[in-house]
């Protein structure tokens, strides 16, 4: 049976196919991480440069450092994902990514 059963506190004993949960978590993850994806960064780049009071070279270096750090942390997050139930690990990682994007969106170089 491909239904979520009593043991899942997420759906409280209702028959929901796992593919719908995967679709839900994938959609939420895509929404929460879209501000950090290259096409979205390109759209807000001029405002981001003004807000952070950085040159394009500095921001590019920062973006590269963040990408390299993310790549370095992938093996560790993989171990975290496999040690926790998937719904908790997805919620944790999506929440952290969303929080980092929110922090970036609230950054300011001071009063204009």
Task: Sum up the structure in keywords.
single chain; 112 residues; mainly alpha; 4 helices; 0% strand
Short synopsis of the structure:
This protein is an all-alpha fold. It has helices at residues 18-33, 38-52, 56-83, 86-106.
List the helices and strands and how they pair.
Blueprint: H1 18-33, H2 38-52, H3 56-83, H4 86-106
Helix pairs in contact: 1-4
Q: In words, what does this structure look like?
A:
With 112 residues, this protein is mainly alpha-helical. It starts with 17 loop residues before the first helix and ends in a 6-residue tail after the last helix. The model has no long low-confidence stretch (mean pLDDT 78). The chain is elongated, with a radius of gyration of 18 Å. The protein is built from four helices and no strands.
Q: Determine the fraction of residues in helical runs and give it as a percent range.
A: over 70%
Radius of gyration using CA atoms only: 18 Å
Query: What do the pLDDT scores average to?
Result: 78
Compute the number of strand runs: 0
**Oligomer status:** single chain
Low-confidence stretches: none
Run of helices and strands: HHHH
Query: End-to-end span in angstroms?
Result: 60 Å
Structural class: mainly alpha
**Sheet bearing the most strands, described?**
none
Instruction: Using the alpha-carbon principal axes, give the shape.
Output: elongated
Individual helix count: 4
What portion of residues belong to β-strands? under 5%
């Amino acid at each position: 049976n491909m239904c979520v059963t009593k043991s899942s506190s997420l759906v409280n004993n209702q028959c929901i196919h796992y593919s719908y949960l995967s679709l839900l978590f994938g959609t939420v993850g895509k929404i929460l991480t879209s501000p950090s994806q290259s096409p979205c960064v390109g759209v807000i780049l001029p405002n981001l440069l003004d807000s952070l009071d950085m040159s394009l070279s500095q921001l590019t270096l920062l973006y590269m450092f963040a990408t390299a750090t993310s790549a370095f942390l992938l093996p560790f997050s993989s171990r975290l994902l496999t040690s926790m139930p998937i719904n908790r690990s997805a919620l944790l990682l999506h929440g952290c990514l969303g929080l980092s994007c929110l922090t970036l969106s609230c950054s300011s170089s001071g009063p204009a």
